[in-house]
Design a protein that fits this description.
This protein is 24% helix and 34% strand. The chain is built from 5 helices and 14 strands.
Amino acid sequence: QAGEPLAIRIAGVAGNPVNARSQISQALTAAGVTNATVNVDDVAIIRPQGCSALDTFGKVRRTGDRSLSVSQREFEMQTQPPGSPYPVASQAVITVRAPAGQEFSIFGIEPEGLFSVLVNNRAELDALVARDREASPAERLVEAVGENEYRIKPLMDHTGWSGLVMLTGEGPFDPAITQPEPGARGEAWQGDFVATASERDWKSEMLWFKSVDKQPNEAPAAG
């Protein structure tokens, strides 16, 4: 928010939100912006294993136009219709703008550092689009909304922060390199990832959003 003083609100995750706020404040001061206020209330603490992954992906961070965007920062838990895999869940609405002529991989990351695969490549995402094409618009979890543009609506059965990582470049994206187990994210993996990313021109982008339960939910009808 512009004005005097400038007000900045940060969302996402950090190993130490207080240190993150301090670094941002120092960068603003160095840039000649004085007396700015930096709010980190929407920053969750990420465990060291997740922090290691974020730092590694950050070495090949994508610049310019964003490939991932979210319709809002928070999504409310709601009672789901019969047949849903979760009785109560929130549903994010995420837009993916895939770079033309490039392969990509999209996977989830939690503050605990755990990964979950969404799609390994463009062909998998297109297959999900074809699968959901026969469903009603309200029931579609994946759909194409333009050339190289998709809308993904994942269900989340837990509250708290969830993140998405998108890697673009030359495939394949071997999960052993892109999504290792928490105990395998040491210096050796970091070196392997950066070397592979350089060879295949990988770029990373991250997006964070929150599942909340602020409103009461009706109990699902008995089957």
